[in-house]
Amino acid sequence: MKLSKVVAASAAVLALTATATACGSDNEDAGGGKIKVGIKYDQPGLGLKQPDGSFAGFDVDVATYVAKELGYKPSQIDFVETKSADRENALARGDVKFIAATYSITDERKAKVDFAGPYLLAHQDLLIKADSKIAKGDDLNGKKLCSVTGSTSAQNVQKTIAPKANLKQYSGYSECIAALQSGAVDAVTTDNSILAGFAAQDKYKDQFKLAGLKLSNENYGIGIKKGDSALEKKINAALTKMVSDDAWQTAISDNLGPAYYTGEPAPKIGEIVT
Ligand code: GLU
């Protein structure tokens, strides 16, 4: 009698364990382990490491949603900083499983990495002092401009927007903002989504404004290692779900609403705006 109770109890434990394992293996990627995800650390509203060590922003919410669909709880995500110039290498080396870091899909990058998405359409713009005026990209020729190494923003300036601008390149946009504040440069150029996030910071209140120029189309993708088409499919399914169940809109409103960012509607997954 006693023995059969024990047997029954262990059978129940075994059954529970089996169920738990089945749930966990719902997604073979998870398995109780961690997932490394690349984000930016210094872009308010998009990817920001906060003073308490936590992370916030639209890219963080997108990454968290995608990770959940891949079978990972928020506590299983390790966010890693991937600066603009480091992203392709971080994926190639396997430092991170995927990157959600204002990462525009371009043909040049597609030679080295693959992308799921796009999940946001932004446009290159300028951040200038509240009392200054720049009406068009061409006005930047001869001006002191700041952008980031390895970004499409810096490349576009040099190739098309203002090849004669005096372009300073730093490793992150926060350094450019400091240069704008001190008067070392006349403007900072990158995506309007990023610039709006900085402009809305309390510490910069009423100091800066966006010029409002749509100098390019920036289709944000989730970067993954080249050739991982199974992961690309899963992430595209996650992004499609995020848009359709309103989590996408909520993430936009929560993170970029305070920056008065009047962004574009959610892009169609798989459709690049050129
Ligand atoms: N979206 C652009 C890019 O991927 C500029 C922002 C960034 O540097 O992350 O290059």
In short:
This protein has 274 residues and is of the alpha/beta class.
Describe this protein's structure.
- This protein is of the alpha/beta class and 274 residues long.
- The chain has 2 domains: 35-122 and 218-259, Periplasmic binding protein-like II (D-Maltodextrin-Binding Protein, domain 2, 3-Layer(aba) Sandwich), CATH 3.40.190; 124-210, D-Maltodextrin-Binding Protein, domain 2 (3-Layer(aba) Sandwich), CATH 3.40.190.10.
- It is 36% helix and 22% strand.
- It has 9 helices and 13 strands.
- The chain has helices at residues 2-24, 58-69, 87-93, 107-110, 152-161, 173-182, 192-199, 229-244, 247-256; strands at 35-39, 42-43, 47-49, 55-56, 77-81, 98-99, 113-122, 124-129, 144-148, 166-170, 187-191, 208-210, 218-225.
- The strands form 3 sheets. A 5-stranded mixed beta sheet has the order 5-1-6-13-7. The chain has a 5-stranded mixed beta sheet with strand order 10-9-11-8-12, with helices on both faces. A 3-stranded antiparallel beta sheet has the order 2-3-4.
- A hairpin with a 5-residue loop joins strand 3 and strand 4.
- The chain is globular, with a radius of gyration of 22 Å.
- Residues 1-28 have low confidence and may be disordered.
- It binds glutamic acid.
- Glutamic acid (GLU) is lined by residues 84, 101-104, 148, 151-153, 190-191, 218.
